[in-house]
Amino acid sequence: MDDKEYLFEAVAILTFGFGNSFGWKKEDEDGNKIADDDRVSYENLIVRNTSKPTEAEVNAKIQELKDAETTAINKKASGKQKLKDLGLDDDEIQVLMGA
Fold first, then answer.
1. pTM score, two decimals?
2. Taking a C-beta distance cutoff of 8 angstroms, is the pair 64, 4 a contact?
3. pLDDT along the chain (99 residues), means of 10
4. Which residues contact 55 (CB under 8 A, 6 or more apart)?
5. Domain residue spans of the chain
6. Which one of 8, 12, 15, 97 has the largest count of C-beta atoms within 10 Å of its C-beta?
7. 65-91 burial by CB neighbour count: b if 16+ within 10 A, else e?
């Protein structure tokens, strides 16, 4: 995932869902259109139906998501190595793990 995807997922979790609970500003304070590539940021976050999480809360959730992803990758690599240590070849491991 890229940083915007992590931000989106973190905000979705912290605001209890997708869809209607949050969005992004389309215009800045001066009425200028915010480019689509620049809209997804904490500064442009609009939260509906609940309070806006703090930037620290969002950053902590992003780090938690990144850590979980890293842990999953490491566990998969560790599992593959353990299967190799048991004598399985790469083709057999691929069949078992799907990767």
1. 0.80
2. no
3. 94 78 93 94 92 96 98 95 95 86
4. 42
5. 3-97
6. 15
7. beeeeeeeeeeeeeebeebeeeeeeee
